[in-house]
Write a structure and sequence with these properties.
376 residues; 2 domains; 72% helix
Length: 376
């Protein structure tokens, strides 16, 4: 009788654990698709931000009103008030003096739309977070990670205003340092949320041999991608894409002569238009070489179709992004091609994250998750 009772208790416990794991997987699917939606909004935000930059619209709203700024000017008097504020900054006085109200409305709507989308992303993240938390759909280890993501979103808003403020007093444009920081943080938030979402999806478990051989390479490659994203922000901030519009030569040479004309030497890395564009080109070549090496190492270390497939996609995305970059350069930064180039960078980043996700596998579920420490 005692043995029968013990078997019954074990069976009941196993059934309860199985039901709990099933519920956890169902909750994960909801959370995952919510995070996919937020990632999609961030992709749109990156493209709209690029358009705001390329249309020189970013300084058209000279105040930061997180709540009241949702409502745009509604009367002629309000529009005149906004234009008068714009007339006080150097960009108007030195570049756009005499701008008509209709011309001002064009740049205003771009910046207003950019800010409104930022607020919409905040709502799209915060409201479901509260609902899922209240419903008990979030696993304990996931909660602090989502709170950190919420913090990153708030930080991004502050960094965005910090960037705009740099162009309101002494400059006719925003600081390239702050623009690159703002853009790179947007990419980081996307990568962080996409990483969480994809690790919540079911994946075949990787072998220890795959992980030890390829995970370090995947992280190095991801680091190179982020370096290139930051350099792209510097290029945008200095309008460096509008200069030296030839390829493969740059100013008639493979390695131009005037890369270190500023002193101290390191300032050229951030403020010399020629050097900043040259770095962006060279890092693109480095990424092409790196992804080919990654493909070679992956084929040697694994025969798993999912891993080989994501590596091939990553190779294709890097090649496409290089083509988009070259076309943007030699066509002298047309708006449509420039936005394709900037937006597609998100897909390159997603593929780089996906490579690591396939190597790491899904987050553990249920009791396995409780035993797991230091989940990343």
């Amino acid at each position: 009788m005692a043995v029968t009772s013990e078997i019954s208790q074990v069976s009941a416990g196993a059934a309860q654990a199985g039901a709990a794991d099933t519920a956890a997987l169902r909750n994960r699917a909801l959370v995952r698709w919510w995070l996919y939606g937020v990632c999609t909004l961030i992709l749109i935000m990156v493209v709209v931000g690029g358009a705001t930059r390329l249309t020189e619209s970013g300084l058209s709203i000279t105040e930061w009103k997180p709540i009241h700024g949702v409502i745009p000017p509604l009367t002629d008097a309000q529009w005149e008030e906004e234009l008068e504020k714009y007339r006080q900054i150097p960009e108007y006085q030195l570049i756009n003096k005499g701008m008509s109200l209709d011309e001002f409305k064009f740049i205003f709507w771009w910046e207003w739309g950019h800010r409104l989308l930022g607020r919409a992303i905040g709502v799209a993240f915060f409201v479901p977070l509260v609902v899922f938390w209240a419903q008990g759909r979030l696993e304990p280890w996931l909660k602090p990670r989502l709170v950190f993501a919420l913090f990153l979103g708030g930080l991004q808003g502050a960094v965005g205003w910090w960037m705009v403020a740099s162009g309101l007093v002494e400059r006719t444009d925003v600081s390239q340092y702050r623009l690159a920081t703002h853009l790179t943080l947007a990419f980081f938030i996307f990568a962080y949320l996409y990483w969480l979402a994809r690790r919540l999806a079911p994946h075949d478990p990787p072998s220890s041999e795959e992980r030890s051989a390829l995970v370090p390479l995947g992280w190095v490659f991801l680091g190179l991608v982020f370096l290139q994203l930051f350099l792209g922000g510097l290029v945008a901030g200095l309008n460096a894409g509008f200069a030296f519009n030839t390829w493969p030569l740059m100013d008639g040479q493979i390695v131009p002569d005037r890369l270190f004309v500023m002193a101290p030497w390191w300032i050229n890395l951030f403020e010399n238009v020629m050097m900043v564009q040259f770095q962006h080109r060279m890092t693109a070549y480095l990424l092409i070489a790196a992804v080919l090496y990654l493909l070679w190492r992956t084929l040697r270390a694994s025969k798993r179709p999912a891993l080989i497939r994501v590596t091939a996609v990553l190779c294709g995305f890097i090649a496409l992004q290089a083509v988009f970059g070259i076309l943007t350069l030699i066509w002298q930064v047309p708006l449509d091609m420039a936005l394709i180039h900037q937006g597609f960078a998100v897909f390159v980043l997603a593929a780089s994250i996906e490579y690591l996700v396939v190597l790491k596998g899904s987050y553990p579920v249920g009791r396995s998750a409780q035993r797991e420490t230091g989940i990343t």
